[in-house]
Specification:
Blueprint: E1 6-10, H1 16-24, H2 32-41, E2 46-51, E3 54-64, E4 68-76, H3 85-99, E5 104-109, H4 114-119, E6 123-133, H5 149-159, H6 164-171, E7 175-179, E8 182-187, E9 193-200, H7 206-214, E10 221-226, H8 230-238, E11 242-253, E12 264-266
Parallel strand pairs: 4-5, 9-10
Antiparallel strand pairs: 1-2, 2-3, 3-4, 5-11, 6-10, 6-11, 7-8, 8-9, 9-12
The structure holds coenzyme A.
Length: about 270
């Protein structure tokens, strides 16, 4: 009789179709380009779980220097859950990031993941809601626009760490909008266009920025808003969005890298912060 075996291996660029197939089974929004970017940015830090040789789960890590690292794409297929597979993927990711010298690790938890993350030492930071505007997905819109050094610096203050390399990589697959104090990005998704990040030092610029962004694309859009950001919540309601899911940002380490969430009017992505 064969013995069941859990094996964790690195995810490579050859696994993009496999990772897409797994995430399609839970309805997530990543595109093949999103997964390629994750693997190219952190080639040793993305993993696949195989159970008896069958690929059943994924996880990604993204490090922003040694100050902060992110864990994302944490999923296990429904029929393989409650066997410790996510725990093993999480432990592998935490060990990897700690091995890189990362001192604070964060993730964005769904209600299904939160109990496990608490067991692994993660603490609640703040909640956010996914808002959605319904419609057909419209992945085709023109990409382009440049991030200014000033906007990258503003993002670092809002986020709590310099993620300029990652923003540049993601920005290449986005439509980027900038004004003197505000940056916004629209990103194609496999399920819906993703509005975010929107980071601003001047909340009075956000309404016109969001209006311009939304005039660019029709149809289904996701927008992740930190709870209590009344400017964004009001705008989202006005533009026909509704809150559909609650998520929780969590951190683990000696001390939290807090940033300034009040400057974040839309988040970049639960996978990477
Ligand atoms: C969240 C998720 C990744 C958890 O995956 P999982 O492989 O079931 O997680 P684990 O088995 O490691 O742990 C989950 C539970 O199973 C329990 N468990 C672990 N090994 C077990 C075993 N051999 N037998 C029974 N239960 C077991 C764990 O103790 C834990 O239970 P608890 O939370 O009640 O203490 C999975 O539910 C999932 O993919 N959900 C959809 C996507 C999602 O929400 N991902 C999280 C994004 S942040």
């Amino acid at each position: 009789m064969s013995q069941t075996q859990l094996h964790i291996r690195q995810m490579t660029l050859g696994d993009i179709d496999l990772a897409m197939n797994l995430k399609d089974q839970v309805g997530w929004n990543q595109t093949p380009d999103d997964i390629r970017r994750l693997i190219e940015y952190e080639p040793d830090g993305c993993f696949i779980a195989e159970f008896d040789g069958v690929p059943v789960g994924t996880v990604s890590t993204t490090s922003y220097g040694t100050k902060l690292g992110w864990i994302g794409m944490m999923l296990v297929l429904p029929e393989y859950r409650r066997r410790g597979i996510a725990r093993k993927l999480m432990e592998t990711s935490i060990d990897y990031l700690r091995g890189r010298g990362v001192t604070c690790i964060k993730l964005d938890a769904t209600p299904l993941g939160q109990p496990l993350y608490e067991q692994l030492g993660f603490h609640a930071e703040w909640g956010f809601q996914r808002w959605e505007r319904e419609g057909e997905n419209a992945p085709e819109f023109s990409l382009g626009g440049d991030l200014s050094a000033q906007m990258v610096a503003t993002d670092a203050v809002a986020f709590g760490a310099d993620r300029s390399c990652w923003l540049t990589s993601v920005g290449a697959g986005c439509r980027v909008f900038t004004t003197p104090s505000t940056v916004g990005m629209l990103r194609p998704g496999s399920v819906a266009t993703y509005l975010g990040p929107v980071v601003s030092e001047d909340s009075s610029e956000v309404a016109s920025m969001v209006g311009e962004m939304l005039s660019t694309v029709e149809g289904r859009i996701f927008w992740d808003i930190p709870s209590g950001n009344e400017v964004s919540e009001q705008l989202a309601s006005t533009h026909g969005f509704q809150p559909v899911r609650q998520l929780l940002r969590m951190w683990r380490g000696d001390s939290n890298v807090a940033g300034r969430p009040e400057l974040q009017f839309a988040l970049l992505d639960p996978t990477t912060g």
